[in-house]
Design brief:
Layout (H helix, E strand, L loop, with lengths): L3 H15 L1 E5 L10 E5 L6 H7 L6 E5 L6 H9 L3 E3 L7 H12 L3 E5 L16 H8 L4 E8 L6 E6 L15 H21 L1
């Protein structure tokens, strides 16, 4: 039995007290079927921010260090998160789990930058998001979180229209192709942030 419904109630209450949250484009997240939610990363709150306002719980890729704590690790697994070794060139176990999530018709949540990026900073996004979407035959939903997580501050989360990648399917998945897709997706995320 998942603790998600209980956690969601308390997290929503916490957000209502702490922040002024605005949600845009929630209808762009499919009500069923798979999809990759690709989001910018400004805070440890981001996974909660992305998930708490959705009707479906995304499966998150989280750094393996978070699972070292038995209580936190158990909670994360109950919330459908799974670990990835960020030091590895390719964590095959995490890769196979991500593809399995998408093949099973679920949502995969990923922060392509791999770590938190402060406002004004730049960090190259990792191309894994493109590989997951292509191998998992899933659309990518760009997600932009804007604002600061200070008491009573305004936070806006926008879910963009799904990007299907149809023009890339059936072809070779080269490094250049993955970088092109990743640049396209993160460009859209940045565009949504600027617009807000």
């Amino acid at each position: 039995m998942t603790v998600y419904p209980v956690v969601k109630v308390f997290v929503k209450l916490f957000y209502k007290i702490m922040f002024k949250a605005t949600i845009v484009g929630k209808e762009n997240v499919p009500k069923d079927g798979n999809g990759v939610l690709c989001c910018n990363h400004i805070s440890n709150y981001d996974p909660l921010t992305m998930a708490v306002f959705l009707d479906r719980l995304p499966c998150y890729i989280a750094k393996k260090e978070l699972f070292d704590n038995k209580f936190l690790g158990a909670l994360l697994r109950n919330l459908k998160a799974f670990p990835v070794d960020r030091e590895a060139v390719m964590d095959m176990k995490a890769f196979k789990t991500a593809i399995s999530v998408l093949k099973g018709g679920d949502l995969l949540g990923i922060f392509a930058e791999g770590t938190r990026v402060k406002e004004g900073e730049e960090k190259a996004a990792k191309a894994g998001v493109a590989m997951f979407a292509l191998k998992g035959d899933a659309p990518i939903i760009p997600v932009a979180i804007s604002g600061t997580y200070k008491f009573r501050s305004e936070i806006t989360i926008e879910f963009g229209q799904p990007i299907t990648l149809e023009e890339y399917r059936g072809g070779r998945i080269t490094t250049a192709v993955m970088e092109e897709i990743t640049e396209k997706i993160m460009g859209k995320v940045q565009e949504m942030k600027v617009k807000l």
